[in-house]
Amino acid sequence: MKRSILMVFPCLVLVSCWGRPTTNANDFDSEATEYSHRTLDDHFEGDTLDGRDYHFSSKDTPSSATKVHELRDARTGLTVNSTEYPANWKVISKPSYTIDQKLPTFLIQITGPNGLKSFNTPIRYHVYYQDSQMAQMMRNTPYGQLIRPLVDPEQIFNEEVKTRMVNSGFNFLGERKRPDLTRYLRNKLSSKSQMDTSLSMYDTEWENSSGQKAMASVSLISMQQPTISGSMMVWFYSVDYTFVDGKAYESTLEHMKEAIFSYKENPQWERYVAQLGQQRAEENQRRAQMAAAQHQNRMQARWAAFNAHQEKMKGIWAAQDANHASFMNRNFGAGSGNGQRQFINMINEEETVHNPLTGNNYQVDAGSTEYWMDSDGNYIRNDDLFYTPKGDINLNNREWVKVEGAY
Question: Contact at 8 Å (CB) between 214 and 205?
Fold first, then answer.
């Protein structure tokens, strides 16, 4: 799911942010820093937007010449995709790995003549479970803050965009339909995803007293994903802003439209993503098989222990009632909360461990020599005393600590 969607989301960012990245690796590093410090930090401070904060030396009339800009993955150095823009537009970008540690989305900014400035906000991610019990269980985890029922883009607009634009001195003109761009992006999305996936967009136009016009857009992707207890809704969105002098508004939109349709994917990046997806599928299958084998071994061991216990108990049936009474008092008597927990763990084939990173106790599958856990409660089972996830290149993007039994 995630692999296919993230392949097309840079294109969705393109639709309202209207563009794409840097021309080479050196420009990428310096411009990404400029983007982060100037646009996202300063521009949103105080919840105001002002398209006239920037001044440009470029000509008032956009050049008919074009240049190619590329979105690059900082981890591999590969070009994700490329787009052609007017030569006198400046496009900078910064990859983000908040949704997937190996597949980036992008923050993009465009500046140019006639006060042109266009940029997008970071992608926000949410999930919603149709099963109320599953939803309640997840609310009690670190992922609880991500749970939210699916809403339409207009509601996101009312929550995040409308007040910000009004406070920046802009007057709302109305919604602008862009059926050709919406159709183009939906076709891109359907070609990349085999899930039940949909795209919704809400584009609005604004004008201020200085004669500047703006477009504020919300792009939202949602999909149904199966779970053990039914299904869940996964959805995420980005808000995009474009400012330009009113006299150049329509011509600028036309140049942006031409840039959107010049979008080209990099076959080498697509092969990399396909290979990554295959590796992850194989790893998931390997883990599932290993878990099934471990469960089978535990069940066989328990059955053998049960049979041995039954053989032993044949000679002491007379003492069974007394032994049972002693057992119940030991595990469920006053002050025996730990014993009760251990008894429940024995039934469920679990262990209770304490994570010093969070100060909380967690339930893990029993049967391993040691356990490693991160601050989100994810854990690794290990029977190799020489293994440490801190040396695993696939896991070293977060802090892992070896946890001990809580009782």
Answer: yes
Q: Please tell me whether residue 58 adopts helix, strand or coil conformation.
A: coil
Query: Is position 326 within any domain?
Result: no
Q: What are 123-142's pLDDT values in tens digits?
A: 888 888 877 777 777 777 77
Residues 256 and 372 both lie in one domain? no
Contact 237, 221 (CB under 8 A): yes
Task: Please tell me whether the overall predicted TM-score, pTM, comes out greater than 0.70 for this model.
Answer: no
Sign of torsion over alpha carbons 13, 17, 19, 23: negative
Question: CB count, 10 Å around CB of 167?
Answer: 12
Q: Using alpha carbons only, give the angle 36, 273, 198 rounded to the nearest 5 degrees.
A: 75
Q: Give residue 153's pLDDT.
A: 93
Residue 98: Cβ within 10 Å count: 11
Beta carbons of 128 and 135 less than 8 angstroms apart? yes
Q: What gap in Å lies between CA 285 and CA 291, rounded to an integer?
A: 10
> Of 265, 290, 325, which residue constitutes the final position of a domain?
265
- Angle of helix 249-261 relative to helix 179-192, nearest 10 degrees, comes to 20
Judge whether 216 and 206 are in contact, CB under 8 Å: yes
Interval 20-47: pLDDT, tens: 333 333 332 323 323 333 333 333 334 3
